[in-house]
């Protein structure tokens, strides 16, 4: 596998498991890939293939893992600290579940900024809402007063609040209506350019990955079976039988 000369994220021989002894379930086995600064890298596969578990291992949400995880050249600490979350943020699949139902947008964003040590919180909240296309009129609304697309924009704004360099995107549009999926994907593409972000995007939708990513890894049963660039994906030039199966199923 060709690895970028400079990496924002480097995963080496990653194993992730749940339980112990006879109850142990191996969710990811021997995963390795590297993502260059500014790149958008996709991870695709069917449900249960382990793709979201990779992201959870990076952020510490899947605590039992072995192997190497390096971000911006430094190994991630076992206990993720504030410095880690200033560099790495994650956007989850379900925007409603990821927002506190009793906290207005202002509190959601303000608390994140406060935890990261920022002081000019009011101005930053306004800027974040502008960045994600909402504006000040949404500042004091609650999650139940927002559409699914608007909630996901708030979740993206919260992820941008610490000024990260790496965003982990876990099926960021799959819970949304088809009519707003393209809007969120275009927003993410614009934010990547404007903020020089690096993306790792998990999706079961090859069309989404083909639109958003430069390269992708294909996962099956917890293992990466192929890494290819998007040009090969669009040309139908997958080499592994499972990758070809995914391509055929998406036509």
Provide a descriptive summary of the structure in words.
It contains nine helices and ten strands. 36% of the residues lie in helices and 25% in strands. The longest helix has 18 residues, at 178-195. It has one domain: Rossmann fold (3-Layer(aba) Sandwich), CATH 3.40.50. The protein has a six-stranded mixed sheet with strand order 6-7-8-3-9-10, sandwiched between helices. Strands 2-1-4-5 form a four-stranded antiparallel sheet, with helices on one face. The protein is α/β, with parallel strands linked by helices and 251 residues long.
Please count the helical segments. 9
Report how far the terminal alpha carbons are from each other: 27 Å
Poorly predicted regions are none
Number of strands: 10
Per CATH, the architecture is 3-Layer(aba) Sandwich
Portion in strands: 25-35%
Provide the domain count.
Answer: 1
Strand arrangement, major sheet: 6-7-8-3-9-10
Share of residues in helices: 25-40%
Report mean pLDDT, rounded to a whole number. 93
Radius of gyration: 18 Å
Shape: globular
Q: What is the CATH topology?
A: Rossmann fold
Order of helices and strands: EEEHEEHEHHHEHEHEEHH
What's the quick description here?
The chain is α/β, with parallel strands linked by helices.
């Amino acid at each position: 596998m060709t690895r970028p000369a400079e990496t924002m994220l480097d995963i080496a021989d990653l194993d992730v498991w749940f339980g112990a002894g006879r109850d142990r379930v191996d969710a990811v086995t021997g995963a390795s890939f590297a993502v260059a600064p500014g790149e958008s890298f996709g991870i695709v596969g069917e449900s249960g293939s382990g793709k979201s578990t990779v992201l959870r291992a990076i952020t510490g949400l899947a605590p039992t893992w072995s192997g190497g995880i390096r971000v911006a050249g430094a190994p991630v600490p076992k206990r993720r600290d504030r410095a880690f979350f200033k560099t790495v943020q994650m956007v989850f699949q379900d925007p409603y579940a990821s927002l506190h139902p009793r906290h207005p947008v202002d509190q959601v964003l303000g608390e994140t900024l406060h935890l990261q040590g920022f002081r000019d919180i009011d101005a930053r909240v306004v800027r974040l809402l502008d960045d994600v296309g909402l504006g000040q009129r949404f500042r004091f609304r609650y999650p139940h007063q927002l559409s699914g697309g608007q909630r996901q924009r708030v979740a993206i704004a919260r992820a941008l609040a610490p000024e990260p360099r790496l965003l982990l995107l876990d099926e960021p549009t799959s819970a949304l209506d088809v009519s707003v999926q393209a809007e969120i994907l275009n927003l993410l593409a614009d934010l990547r350019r404007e903020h020089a972000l690096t993306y790792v995007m998990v999706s079961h939708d090859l069309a989404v990955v083909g639109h958003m990513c430069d390269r992708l890894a294909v996962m099956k049963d917890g293992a990466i079976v192929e890494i290819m660039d998007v040009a090969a994906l669009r040309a139908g030039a997958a080499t592994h039988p499972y990758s070809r199966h995914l391509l055929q199923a998406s036509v």
